[in-house]
């Protein structure tokens, strides 16, 4: 009974028997550019359609020591902008004929290396990394196996990478607040310490100080909604409450806005102006109307796949670098003057 229920895929041998041709004729029919007589091809295709046969791409990849698999390695891929970027990457990879594999992993070195070894074991042709801080051993293992890496959200000297214009956007946020007459500025970063979050926080603080504004920083334990509440509590239960806050991502901004309006009765933007970063769909909800810097996940994904294509065509090329500058999307949480 167990043998009868076991999954059985239609084989090329079955197609050959039904079509009345050799096994090699079936193989040539489904091999691009291979020579096969038109009449034979027609018989094979008719038999394959009748049986529901599909080529075993996995076996072909093993024989060729490569595959069309591309790994996407991410920590918490279901949250915030990363969810939309993951979806955009999957679509972009499928368009190029690749098979995306999502590895949901933690930030610990052993977890990241385990994900990478899994992809190398399945002969994935490349890996795209969304996690914030892969260890040096991750890149060394990829180099030893000749596996291309594309990193999104951080710079890595030995890998192709795509980054948002974090510093430009953060400086623009400080300048816009100051031009609107806001003088007690704050930035909310994250205890997660990812390169993108740190760059946004650092650039905003430097720009605000250069303008002569009072500026403070707060961090929640992570870069999510609850962390926005934690950081808002720290900022607004102090003696010097800010009148404008730049949040390192939209999830943090949502937590901040809900806290100051619900717990403190403050008005946004009258009492406190708020700018976020990412422009996830919830930013446009009527309950938030968040002014934020837009990262376009489709553009980021396209740039990443272009770097991957370039690397596969020229493995010895110098590392490629794409920088995507976010645009400010103005809504009701802050309107620049």
TrEMBL record:
KW DNA-binding (keyword) present: yes
Q: Name one GO molecular function term.
A: DNA binding
Name all HTH lacI-type domain ranges: 10-64
Q: Which domain of life is it from?
A: Bacteria
Source organism of the structure: Neorhizobium petrolearium
Q: Which InterPro entries match?
A: HTH_LacI (IPR000843), LacI/GalR-like_sensor (IPR046335), Lambda_DNA-bd_dom_sf (IPR010982), Peripla_BP_I (IPR028082)
Q: Name one Pfam family in it.
A: LacI
Q: Which UniProt keywords apply?
A: DNA-binding, Repressor, Transcription, Transcription regulation
**Mind telling me what this protein is named?**
LacI family DNA-binding transcriptional regulator
* Matching SMART domains: HTH_LACI
